[in-house]
Write a structure and sequence with these properties.
About 10% of the residues have low confidence. α5 crosses α10. 32% of the residues lie in helices and 18% in strands. A five-stranded mixed barrel has the order 1-3-4-6-5. Strands 10-13-16-9-17 form a five-stranded parallel beta sheet. A two-stranded antiparallel sheet has the order 7-8. The chain is α/β, with parallel strands linked by helices.
């Protein structure tokens, strides 16, 4: 083990080299001096375990700075950082000189962009590989999720500040003290000083990344795609294929590098590491896109954004939270209890499984009876609440102009080898609200027709078509979709259509404690497993057959929706299987809904 004298946050590479040298020395004894590091290919020699123990067993993760656009250039290179983001593009594998022999000593280049030591030529060396992922801030990530992992105050961590920042902080502190004594108040003089060209400004808002020719923007220069131009190139080691997938949301913890000198390596460089840099990374130069050499990573779900609570899942507890959420939704929707019940089922839905082209578990919702005025009142309140309840959400105004101009489809740019994102490239669990009240008569261009087809396909099959120029490929996704429209939407055919009938104007607020409990409830219930008792399932099937005999218009899709609604209803009470009580509740919801539809 690495002793406490090593600063795992300020000098992680020191711990990496020390553990490697110890492991190589031990392997040399066991192998009799015959190539002791051959066994370390695609294998951790103990370095990752040192960091994993420090981060999770000793609580060190709270001491690791969070990398984002606001502190890019502020953090000292080769320190430990963590980055939460979505895998926007998978760039394949990169070969690098993982280990080489320097005299009688074996050294490693793992977790670095280039060798920290001069590599003799020729020398015994091993070629290893690492996986490259272009990661971006999660599209539609809501602000409350950032509170679950805030990280330390970087300005108080001198071991993670770059030398320029440490000097600047010292100068600013001295100047501020002089201003306080001379002016008689605590106003910082840094607001009135003109920064030097080589100073790095610290701003409270997101930093603007400098533009660069040949560096494709995350959004493909499309103003309809929300998000930041900030991104990170994550390099993962010793990972089996397919563990990290496109659009996964994960937390990556590793060594941070951001070095303008690597933007254009010298053709005459003697460093063999430069010869192995893949062409695809040339489109993401280190002067513009930081690197993170990952030591530890973990996928994130909705529950990872919730405050950790060791709560026993008692049905009485879930029932109480369910009732408070239903009550709030009812008031928010103008005392429309039916709409509130259906909205809760919608928020608890998720894709459970796929059987051929059939998706099991989804429940898209279409509220009809909206116009521009009601959408500006109820729609805005609804969007605000959804933003405060789910980790990722986006509201999309579905106008003719939007359909004709927005880039919904992700596409591959074969000239750069990069995947250019589109609006529909979303992480699992994203909530999308479409406002059709802004839709007016007009003509759709070919792009508008294409976008309409993409949205309809997403609604019906939870699949997004990616354009790879020479061919197209459908990729599975799992998003919740709510449509607000005047009549039944033709562009977005939802599973459940509910006429909206408010009787009052909403005037309701929720406390932070209530919001926290509802977030926990939604994340917990959505993760509950589902199973069905054979006897109950047989009874439900018999009732479905009888219903089809009485109403010949009923189809398999509607019966499947009834069963989905019953399963979600059972889960909403904390139950794993459907009871006849849950089934009767769904039948009553259907009766009231059809009564409104007439």
């Amino acid at each position: 083990m690495v002793g406490p004298q090593y600063d795992l946050v300020g000098n992680p590479l020191g711990a990496v080299r020390t553990t490697f040298e110890k492991a190589a020395a031990a392997a040399a004894v066991e192998s009799g001096g015959r190539d002791p590091v051959a066994a370390f290919r695609s294998k951790d020699w103990g370095a990752s375990e040192v960091f994993r123990s420090f981060l999770f067993d000793q609580g060190g993760i709270d001491r690791v700075p969070v990398l984002d656009a606001s502190n890019l250039g502020l953090i000292k290179p080769n320190t430990l950082v963590r980055f939460r983001g979505m895998v926007q593009d998978m760039l394949g594998n990169e070969f690098y000189a993982g280990a080489f022999k320097d005299g009688s000593t074996w050294r490693t280049n793992k977790f670095t962009d280039f060798s920290p030591f001069t590599m003799p030529h020729p020398c015994d060396s091993h070629l290893w590989e690492r996986h490259l992922f272009h990661c971006v801030p999660v599209p539609g990530q809501n602000s409350w999720t950032l509170e679950s992992s805030p990280g330390p105050d970087l300005r108080q961590m001198s071991n993670c500040l770059s030398p320029e920042q440490r000097e600047k902080r010292k100068r600013d502190g001295d100047d501020d003290a002089m201003d306080v004594s001379e002016n008689g108040h605590g106003e910082s003089s840094s607001c009135s000083k003109k920064p030097k060209e080589d100073d790095v400004q610290i701003s409270s808002g997101p930093a603007v990344m400098p533009a660069s020719e040949g560096v494709p923007e995350m959004n493909g220069n499309d103003h309809h795609i929300p998000g930041s131009s900030f991104s990170c190139l994550v390099k993962i080691y010793d990972m089996p294929d397919s563990q990290v997938k496109l659009n996964d949301v994960a937390e990556f913890i590793g060594v941070y590098t951001f070095d303008p000198e690597l933007a254009a390596p010298n053709d005459n460089s003697d460093d063999i590491m430069f010869d192995l840099i893949e062409d695809v990374t040339a489109q993401l130069p280190p002067s513009k896109v930081p690197r993170l050499h990952c030591l530890v990573w973990r996928k994130l779900s909705s529950q990872d954004f919730i405050a950790k609570q060791s709560v026993e899942l008692l049905p009485s507890l879930l029932k109480g939270i369910r009732q408070s959420l239903i009550s709030h939704l009812t008031q928010l929707l103008g005392n429309d209890g039916l709409a509130a019940q259906c909205l809760l089922l919608h928020l608890l839905s998720r894709l459970r499984t796929r059987v051929d082209v059939v998706t099991v578990g989804r429940l898209s919702l279409n509220f009809t009876g909206f116009n521009r005025e009601s959408a500006s009142i109820f729609g805005n309140h609804l969007n605000t609440l959804i933003q405060r309840l789910v980790p990722y959400s986006q509201a999309i105004p579905l106008s003719i102009e939007y359909l004709n101009t927005a880039t919904l489809q992700p596409r591959k740019d074969n000239k750069t080898g990069r995947l250019v994102t589109g609006v529909l490239q979303q992480p699992q669990g994203t909530h999308l609200t479409f406002d059709e009240t802004v839709l007016q008569s007009g003509s759709l261009t070919s792009k508008g027709v294409e976008n309409s087809v993409l949205l309809k396909n997403l609604m019906e099959s939870l699949m997004v078509e990616y354009d790879f120029e020479y061919y197209k490929m459908e990729m599975a996704t799992d998003v919740q979709m709510l449509t607000l429209s005047e009549g039944k939407s033709n562009i977005l055919p939802s599973d459940l259509v509910v006429p909206f009938r408010p009787s009052t104007v909403p005037a309701v607020t929720a406390s932070p404690e209530e919001l926290e409990s509802w977030r926990w409830y939604l994340a917990t219930v959505r993760s509950l497993p589902q199973s069905n008792e054979p006897e109950i399932l047989q009874t439900i099937q018999d009732e479905m057959v009888s219903a089809m005999r009485e109403d010949r218009s009923l189809g398999c899709s509607e019966l499947s929706r009834w069963l989905t609604m019953a399963q979600i209803t059972a889960s909403s009470f904390g139950e794993k299987s459907i009871s006849m009580e849950h089934w009767q509740m769904v039948k009553e919801l259907e009766r009231l809904r059809k009564q409104r539809m007439q």
